[in-house]
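Summary for the funding panel

The consortium committed to producing paired sequence-structure records for every protein in the target list. Below we show the first two records in order, beginning with the earlier of the two.
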Amino acid sequence: MPFPHFSSREFYEKYHYNGELGAIYHPTHTTFRVWAPTAAQVWLVVYNTGSGGHGTKHPLHMGINGTWSTSLNGDCHGLFYNYRVLIKGVTNEAVDPYAKACGVNGERGMVVDPRQTNPAGWDKLARPPLNRFVDAIIYELHIRDISIHPKSGITHRGKFLGLTETDTVGPGAIKTGLDHLKDLGITHVQLMPCYDFATVDETRSDGYNWGYDPLNYNVPEGSYATDPYTGTQRILEFKQLIQALKAAGIRVNMDVVYNHTFYTQSSHFNKLIPGYYYRQNDVGGFADGSGCGNELATERSMVRKMILDSVTYWAKEYKIDGFRFDLMGLMDIPTINEIRAALNEIDPTIMMYGEGWTGGYSPLPDNLKGLKGNVRELPGTGVFNDDLRDGLRGHVFFAEQPGFINGGVGKEESVKLGIVGAVRHDQVDYGSVIYTHEPWAAEPAQSINYAEAHDNLTLWDKLAAVCPNAESTDLMAMQKLCGAIILTSQGIPFLHAGMEFLRTKMGDANSYKSPDHINWIDWGLKQKHYDIFQYYRGLITLRRYHPAFRMTQSIDIQNHLRFLNVQSGNLLAYSLGGNANNDSWKTIVVIFNANQIEKSVTLPADDWIVVVNQHKAGTSVLDKIEGRQAVAPAMSALVLVDAASYYKVEPH
């Protein structure tokens, strides 16, 4: 009798399984349970090692809803295993999709007692405080990049443990690694993929990849461990990294890729139940909205369950504080909202945000996609603000095309949309916004504001591409202006590691497998551009101390943030009035001048204190303005505070 269609109600009612899957460890026995409803027979194959050698087969017994299971007596911690499935006369071996540990290169799962992977003090480790999502300042980094440079001063270069080291210094005795992150003042580190990915050979020390090529979703990547062969070591060291960051007051977000897998036909999922986990195109082949050969059918119940189980596992077992979803447009809205609900049960301060687009055509209907335009249907989940990104720096795929900060024309409304956190505001002309001609966010926390990420040119490389003949001092001014806009806008600011000291990838716009010398954080740049680092640090201090830049409700932004009349293009100014969001400063004025000449702006009152100018940023007095005219130097930001409230609360 033929199986009902995978997406049918009949299939769901007959084969959906709500229980626990994987190797379920107990000190006296381990139960192995796998979902493989189309298999004629399933065997557990156990091994002494994570690679090589011959295994011993144990038949699994058919259970309810398409599951197969068996139990092995004794303490199985450290036992390697796979499943063999017989489907339509063909036998394949696959790693358990629910494996929580594995051998080298993820070729075999491993039974693990999670209690044996906890560093000392893990049970008492708490999440650093976070009152509201808009209080977050996210810093994206790649585990290898942050420490692999030979002058990083870090012993465990390119490893999880590299980010646990303190008192590390680089050229000129500048702080590096973990101490750099603490000094900068960010609240969240977003780790680029740390689950087990496919394209780096863990037996070698020189492999590189960003990691958007999932192999085993619930296992840390072995190339970042000091010992990739021992399944527990990678878990322990990843937990030590998380522990070190949290002890430093920094939350840990994880970049996850549930939209596709690296392998398609030969993936673990496809071996266990061919075709189920992946969407099909019109001719019955694999749909490819990811641009990577496949896309997961998140709307199917057991795919949704797998993702839910995986996300909540990372949140509980590893105490992950947030999840960045790659190509979230390929995930269906009900799945995203179920993840949000599940995380709320664990801790409602766990963040969720993602890329609100796809990598190509997907058969998932647009009204079901986790797209930026649908984010109002995703309460508690944010998306990256590409309107602001390209409005600021220019088109992401056309290197020479400028934006607001580097000579572009007509980008003001796109920047204004970012300033208001993409919510409705009567002073924004949404029809002139470059991509989305409407206020797409319900609340500012749904707008992740950025100008640079791992993808595409770094901001410094983009500025050089747009303005190849510009003086370096002008490019530096643009870099500072861009940071000022990102870090004072409503919503959630997002920085790419090294942006705060002019990180370059030598013009490589897609460095996902480029060598270390392209991708590494060159700590010599921090020494060379320490003034720019200090400027970004000052902007972060300003944001963290003053809640006017972190309003939580769209109605408050509409009432308290008002744009000022200016008489020039590439010039924006606005006020934050009425002690916005209970700020101690009554009125703040922010001015962005992207012109190559100074510009004058009429202020709403007399007597102002300058706390951000073209040279420095923070909360200290840099200058005073007695009248109603502020002169903004070329390519710079000004942040002003009314003198009366400043001196009332700031004992300078």
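The next record, for a separate protein in the list, is shown here:
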Amino acid sequence: MARTRRTIQHFNGRDHSWIEFNRRVLEEAEDPSNPLLERVKFLAITASNLDEYVEVRQAGLMQRIEDGYSEPGYDGLRPDESLTQLTADIHAFVAAQYRCWNQQLLPEMRQQGIRLLAWEELDDEACAFAKDYFQRDVDPLLTPISIDPAHPFPRVLNKALCLAILLRAKRRRSGPQVLGVVTVPRALPRFVRLPAADGHWDYLLLQDLIAQHLTGMYRGYEVVAHASFRVTRNSNLYFEEEEARSLLETIRVELHNRRKGDAVRLEIETGADPEIVERLRINFELEEDQVSRTEGPVNLSRLMFFYENVPRPDLKFQSFTPKPLVLSRKSTGIFDELRHRDILLHHPYDSYDPVVEFVRQGAQDPAVVTLKQTLYRTSHDSPMFQALTEAGATKEATVVVELMARFDEASNIRWARSMEDAGVQVFHGVVGLKTHCKLALLVRRDEDGVTRRYCHLGTGNYNPVTARFYTDLSLLTSDPQITGRVHMVFNYLTAHAELDDYSPLLVAPLTMAENFLRLIRREQEHAFAGRPAHIVAKMNALLEPSVVEALYQAAQAGVEIDLIVRGISILRPGVKGLSNRIRVRSIVGRFLEHSRIFHFANGGNDEIYIGSADWMPRNLFERCEVVFPVRDPAAVARICNEILPAYLADTVKARIQQPDGSYLRASKLFKDAPAFSSQDFLIQLAEGKADLDAIPAPSMPPETKSRSRRATVTAQ
């Protein structure tokens, strides 16, 4: 059904909202109050974000156009109109990235003794070192190719950095020019460390080093021109499940086929010879607007090298130690503790070690008879993987591995194979649905003779590495209602055994969407009755139209709504008569805001849910997700009095969404409000250097203050 004009006016465009999000990340790279190498890291993140967006979203739009789709999106734009606008926005964004690099970061790095040098700037010692490095470590890895009838254009891998060389045969100077291609080895660092004085770090781009040796690789040719380039290809995964022998084998085949995806974008240096650009464009079958010219190194995501390899802690955020979990004095261990209370952890401020230990003890404790866990993403040397593999030898161990976790498929296949070999029962969830929920379930014969279930439920992946810079929540519990339903969720994942009601859990795609809509409508009823009615929801993205419409209706009924949405939001806040009781803020800072929290005032009887799902169609209808209640009074109080109020009070890293989809810094919008950074405060709180009294009241527009009770969250 086509969207009506009235409905279209209710939504911002998805692609416009994503570009706005990546601009907020770029602002952190431009912000001089951030340490220099952190700013370089933020710039690299914007490039990595853009890569994924181009090879998935832009490629997807192109596919829809080729398939004849013309249905308008959220904002009323057809796919071809969206693609045109998105392409223009991407070109403008890339120009902003390179302005940041050339005008801010590169000069400031030089001032700090970190120099990226051109070949002409090398002194004799550095030049000799570079030549020796090339002969010893680089040249053996190179395969120069010239394009002619006997040598067709090579298959350029997705996002592989290459050099294109325009060549002319020395014996036939009047003959046609030939194109050569050299792939820059991925096995080597993109930046070559050069000899430098103490306290200085000099580097040379690997592609610049290779370029200086092209004549030796193409003997008999004159090198007319050269340029670095990179091709981004369509990385969408498509397969027919009914025809597949197994899901695992299908994904393995698709990983191979992904290399053969159609080209979507060509990145090439601005100064590249027009002949090189045109030959590449024609070869990759690209339109002119799919060529992205770079005013500096191709592939800015590689700048992460400087953050990871330059030993300058003074140019990074000050390190801190996460708060360790302290058990009650009378507890004999984690299981004894959980029999008396739930444990809520807020990562990275709280250590992730208790989650790792929960799984490790489950694998090693002889009293634990069964261990079940979901895995979506994990680290390469994950202690979770090691513990689960160990468990396969001594107890009933079941793991549900998501093979289609985008760009982590290869590592997940390796985990699956290794765990199967160790005796673990490995499942891949419900066919057609990604398993995105974060669950670990232990069944233990306790010392009192009672067999109990213990669970970990989380908002983030079982990855100790990302847990150091993603904000997430973990709940450890032995609540029989919750653990019993988690057991039924595993039955759904391994046997497709469905229940009509998973209460108190919200389970997608079965019950979650309808229950979220019910909870929003309940706030609307409280508002009509004059009872406290307030929704505070924190998530990564807000894209589901039915949820947005329900929020609009609740706001019109008098419900105050505060949304903390890190990324894409199609909702239009602050529209008179539609959403003037809705406020949307995004916090982009040192840590990646990844937790999902849903607070409903419920007439004065607060209800808190946390979990793995955003308010997006894919989370509500196309994935296996679990959102769960927080019931322990201390845990509820922590979310209501510490976590959510800190985010709502942020005036340093928060941006406030405007009705047109743009964002304004809270510091500019609320100039009289005190400077308050939620992430800095939560670090200080974890270190015992701050208390809850330091959280100011949230800043709100004057018209909101006049009609609302103090817009914060307080446990009743």
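Regarding this second record: The longest strand covers residues 221-233. The domain at 506-707 is CATH 3.30.870.10 (Endonuclease; Chain A).
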